[in-house]
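Need C-alpha cells for this chain, all 184 residues.
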Amino acid sequence: MTATVPETPPSDYRLLVPRDWFRVDLTRERWRGQLKTFVDKEFTGSGMPAEVARSTWVALRNTAENGLIRGALEFFLRSESPGGSALPASLLISWPPTPRGLAPTPEEFAETLARRRGPETEVGLVDLPAGRTVRARTGTTLDFHVRMPGDVGYLHLACSMPLSGTDSAMGELCDAMAHSLRWI
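Here are the C-alpha cells for all 184 residues:
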C-alpha cells in the first residue's frame, strides 16, 4: 500500500543509503576534498598505478561538476571491486530547478524521456511511496525521476553500476534505495 503523498512542497527528503556508501555533500564548497578523500582511500595500498587513481578522480569530479549544473545535492559512492580497479557504483541526487507549476506530468515526462534516450533505454512509470515516478534503465544505469509534492518538479536519483550492471544485486539495492524515499 502506498502512503499518501502530501500536496505541499517538501522541506527536505529522507533516503536510506547503506552505511558503507561514501557520501559527498555537493551543497558545500568542500566537496572536492571529500571526493579526493574517497579516491585516496580506495587506491592507497592497492598497487594500482597512480594514473588509474587520477583518471578515476577526474571522472568522478566531472560527474559531480556536471551534476551541479543540473541541481545536484549529494553524491554517494561505493567501490564494486577490490583494489579500486574500476569506477565505483554511484548515486547522484539532484533537484533540477523547475518553476512551480511547469513540470510535466509523469506520463508526459516518460514519453519525452523515452524519445530522447532511444530504444536502448527502458522507460516506464512506477508508483513509489514518495509518489509517481519515471524510471529509466539501461545496462549500467538506473534513474528515478520522482514527482515532488506541490508541483515543484522532480527529484532525480541517478544510479550508475559500471561493473555489475543493473541486472544484479547492486541494481536491486538501487531500486530499494529509491523505494525508501520519503518527503519531510
